[in-house]
Amino acid sequence: MKELETIAFREINRYRNDDNCIIIDLRDRQLYRKSHVEGAWNIPYEQLAGAVPMLPREKLLILYCERGGTAMLAGRELAKKGFRVKVAVGGFEH
């Protein structure tokens, strides 16, 4: 299993323009439409398992959700599958 790292949510912007990273918003589509980190992919947690084959293994995945707990669960799952993952703890700041 790859190591799961955490970052403070306020650090997420420094990954926005990095071509080696994908920021993933795990919240539902309605919350994503309301507001999200610019450039983030929206993959609601409930749909993550089905999206795994589409995720590029060579990129660092930065995950966030409403409060941080769901992103931690998803991060552990993806790390077990061999992905490089960082979880933004603290959740999305509205």
UniProtKB/TrEMBL annotation:
Pfam families: Rhodanese (PF00581). SMART domains: RHOD (SM00450). InterPro entries: GlpE_sulfurtransferase, Rhodanese-like_dom, Rhodanese-like_dom_sf. Residues 17-92 form the Rhodanese domain. SUPFAM superfamilies: Rhodanese/Cell cycle control phosphatase. PANTHER family: FAD-DEPENDENT OXIDOREDUCTASE (PTHR43031), NITRIC OXIDE REDUCTASE FLRD-NAD(+) REDUCTASE (PTHR43031:SF7). This is Rhodanese-like domain-containing protein.
